[in-house]
Amino acid sequence: MIIVSDTTPISELAKVEHLDLLPKLFGKVLIPHGVFNELQVGQHPAAEFVQNLSWIEVVKVENQLVVEELQKSFNLHLGESEAIALAEEIGASQLLIDEKAARKVAMVRKLPLIGTVGILLLAKRRGLLDSVKDILDEMQVKGTRISDRLYLQVLTLAEEIKGQ
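The chain above was modelled as a monomer; its predicted structure follows.
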């Protein structure tokens, strides 16, 4: 299974100390240089460990024209553009990406997607988590925006509340 990740899923999982879910679920995770660089600047919670994680492989995107087109045509950030381009180049099994605009572009390009919330649901289904709700609550406390609708939908899918 070949997995490519954008910055946000790595950052969000690191914030709540569940970055270990990625190698448990997927083994190795590929990130383009743009994502690696984004994880090194500012306050990204993953910055301190991303350089030393054996399960993250930094990969060069060969087709820079696609990256530039994604940035110009869809106003995507470098990391998002490189993650989409890399996923296409290598035929990734999953693209880990959260941003709405980038997800729309990736869907049009027929890339298989999963986001941070999807990772939590998959981890729960595989017995790696007892509670998705606890992690969602912690993410919200640490600044992650999750709409009420998505929150309820995820907890329903996680079978932590009854369907509405």
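The chain has a mean pLDDT of 93.
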